[in-house]
């Protein structure tokens, strides 16, 4: 019975783990957030965004970046558990 | 909190520049930059209380501004610029790095002597579209013959049609400005143009210094 469980479910659990990891990486994509930070600055410098818009967006992105870095750190150290 | 760590802006040849020292707004709230020298190489530094400074927009701007001040200091100086964030434990560790990377600094200095870096970004208008290949070709045709070198930078936004840095002889600066102006005339209705500089030639110096690499 246990052997059957292993054969049937272990591959499935592996796939779920992988999908979950990928989803986490996309949700907390540090590189994409860094790009967004640079774009925000560029559009402000080009006059397309007002200072208020720029600062507001900057604050949001920096908060998201901090969270994303934290999640990645925890993920790398194995402290983020995949719940099933 | 101690300020015994050293934040490095760039490296100069002190045989040409002498010891550089002036008061200015420096990274992390410091108010003075000065030279830490080993033989004829000098690292232009300010004091800091960390070896891992956070890159805020403000401090990144200050880093650039200090480099520009050094470039303009006392009739103009050649400086091998460091990227933001190079900080060392103390003078001794910094001097060890200067000693170890001496040949690389010398080469870099000779590559950038009398040259400046200029940046060009072309950005589509919001919801605008343009033949990107045609623009890139036109920019290359105008600017590449004048520049000593060009590098393509990161396209961090979908709206960036082009993001390049150019190494330009100071003598060619006027011709380069005129060529950029022609591009602005040609594409100004369809594209936002950001022409920046002069900078110390970051993009054309490939010296990594630090505890792990030199």
Automatic annotation (TrEMBL), chain A:
Q: Which InterPro entries match?
A: Gas_vesic_GvpG_halobact, GvpG
Record's protein name: Gas-vesicle operon protein gvpG1
The species this protein was found in: Natrialba asiatica (strain ATCC 700177 / DSM 12278 / JCM 9576 / FERM P-10747 / NBRC 102637 / 172P1)
TrEMBL record, chain B:
Taxonomically, which superkingdom? Archaea
Whether Mitochondrion counts among this entry's keywords is no
The GO cellular component terms are:
gas vesicle
Q: Where are the transmembrane segments?
A: none
Q: Which InterPro entries match?
A: GvpL/GvpF
The main place the protein resides is other
- Keywords carried by this UniProt record: Gas vesicle
Q: Where in the cell is it found?
A: Gas vesicle
GO BP annotations of the record are: gas vesicle organization
Sequence similarity: Belongs to the gas vesicle GvpF/GvpL family.
The name this protein carries in UniProt is Gas vesicle synthesis protein GvpLGvpF
